[in-house]
Each structure stands twice: as C-alpha cells, then as structure tokens.
Amino acid sequence: MGFLIENFGAIFFFLVAALTVAGAVGVVTLRNPVHAALALLETFVMVAILFILRHAEFLAAVQVLVYAGGIMVLYLFVIMLVKVKDLRAEDAFLLNIAPLAVLGGVLLGALLAAGILLGTMAAGDGAVAALQTIGDETVGNTEAVGWLLFTKFLVPFEVVSVVLLVAMIGAIVFGRRDAALSGPGEGVEP
Amino acid sequence: MDHYVPILIFTLIAVSVPIIILMIAKVVRFGSYDPVKAEPYECGIEATSFALDTRFSIRYYLIAVLFVVFDVETIFLFPWAVVFDELALFGFIEMMVFLAILLVGYLYAWRRGALEWA
Asked: Least CB-CB distance to B98: which of A74, A78, A157?
C-alpha cells in the first residue's frame, strides 16, 4: 500500500498511457466502424489526461472540446456517409500494405523519439518546463498560452484563420448538391 | 497535482454510478427475450432498413465541418479572453482581424445556402 501511494503519479501515468495505447489498437483492430470510433474517443480522452499530467491544461481542454467533441462527430458522420458496415472485404488490401505500414510506423516512432529527446535536451536537465508564466509572474496555463499566442506567435495565429477559411470553403464547394451529382467541370455555378 | 484529487474522485463516482445501476438492474430484473426488444425503437415504427445500410446526405458532412471550424475558432477565444486586459487594444485588433477572416467564410456559407437544409 505504501508503494502505491508513494508512486501514485507514475502508476497513474502508466495506467493512462496503457489505456491510450489500448484505445489506439482498438481503433485499427475493431471490425465495426462505430466501435472503432468509440475506441478513438477513449484514446482522445486519455490523451487529454496525459496533457493534464504535463500541466498543459489548455491543451487538455482543447483536446476534449475539439477532438472528443467536434472531430468525433465528423468521423461518425463520415462513417454514416460512406456506408461501411463491416471491414472484412479490405483484408487482402490491408495485408498488401502491411510492410509499408510497419516501415511508416517505425519511421514515425524514430521521429517522435528524436523530437522528444532533442526537445528535452534543449530544455535543460529538468523535464520540459510547464508553460505557466508571463514574464516572471506565475499564472495559469491558459493565460500563459494566450499571452504567447497573441504576442510571440501572432502571425501563425492569424494564418490559422486563413487555414480555417480554406477548410470551410472547401467543404462548402465539395458538399454542394449540384457538385456531388454532376461530373467535373459541370455545375460550378448554382 | 493535488487540486486534481476532487476531479479524480468525481470521475470515479461518475463511472461507478452507472456500473452499479446496471449491476442492480441485472440482479432485480427478470429475463425474458423477445426479438422486438432488440429493435432500436421498441415501441416505435418498425425500422425499414439497418442504419448502416443507408447512405446519409452529404449535407451532414458539411454541417459537421462547419461545426468543427467554428469550434476551433471558439477555442482561440478562450486564451484571448483571459489575457484580454494585458493585451489591451492590440489584442482586440488581432482578434477582430481573425474573426473578420472567418466572417468571410461564414458569409460565403450563407450566400451559398450551406446553412439551409432544403
């Protein structure tokens, strides 16, 4: 019992990390697309808890609001739109791309490991410091993020609005009824 | 991390309540099977097809994308609002530029009839 209490933080982290990976494995192995979507939802929530453990509270809130809320709805709609009932027919196709998938996974893992190692080294001996200050003043994570976002990262922030605008206009163009029914080049104007 | 203890307790209670209720229900109910009970709406109109057999209108996707876009837009308002005083007028102008660019998309969606269902 003493061991459990002393190492509660580490035990909690590994529990959440294991559940995150379990959810991610569920996303790619579950046959029913709706079950896969639910596993994805679980992964999103667990990642939010991991963010909280790193004192990135704002990111955790974004993770729940945007990913578990918005992106999830989008995925469920896509499942309904493309009429996937059961993912058995694609088995042969999935086996064909298995070597490529493994290669991609290994490369991605190496990239992530390098990023984490280099990032930690750049930050000094301690772990990466939590973002909790404006100047010398200690504030909440959301305030600190807000301050950086609207001062140092002003231009990327404004670019985000353009990116969102592109996504919005793209969805409207593709989602229009006449565009969906007619061939390329036709029905451009309503 | 200490101030997360109440949230942890809250989560544990929130998870255990439905589990306990389901377990109580399992003990006290009597089991009788009827195929009607397996239908999505036991007392409603009979389903004409399985949900995943039908294809839904692309308009649902459009609505979902618009929702996500405005969801992300809203997310940026939170860190802006908490440092609003420190940022002063400059921060206000920044956010107005951000919102103005997205307003273009909103007006486009409106003009194109993306907000209408029919």
From this structure: A157
d(CA A24, CA A108): 15
CATH number of the domain enclosing A27 = 1.20.120.1200
Q: How far is CA B75 from the centre of its chain?
A: 14
In a domain, A127, yes or no: no
Read off the pLDDT of each residue in B45-67 and give the average, rounded to a whole number: 76
Alpha-carbon gap: B41 to the closest alpha carbon of chain A (Å): 19
Q: Which residue of B has its CA nearest to A164?
A: B69
The partner residues of A138 in beta bridges, in order of sequence, read A133
Nearest CA in chain A to B80: A146
The per-residue pLDDT for range A69-91, each reduced to its tens digit, is 889 988 888 887 776 665 565 56
Identify the weakest region by mean pLDDT among A58-72, A165-179, B20-34. Answer: A165-179
- Looking at residue A185, what is its pLDDT? 45
**In whole angstroms, what is the distance from residue A121 CA to residue A128 CA?**
9
Average pLDDT over residues A150-172: 88
pTM of this prediction exceeds 0.80: no
Q: What angle do CA A81, A87, A91 make, to 5 degrees?
A: 140
CB pairs under 8 A between A and B: 151
> What residues make up the domain containing A31?
9-88
Q: Evaluate whether residue A144 is within a structural domain.
A: no
Is the domain B2-111 a CATH 2.102.10.10 member? no
Residue pLDDT, tens place only, B66-91: 888 888 888 999 889 988 888 888 88
Size of chain A in residues: 190
What's the structural domain count of chain A?
1
> Closest Cα of chain A to B29: distance in Å?
27
In a domain? residue A106: no
Among candidate residues A114, A124, A126, A3, the one with its CA nearest the CA of residue A54: A126
ipTM score: 0.73
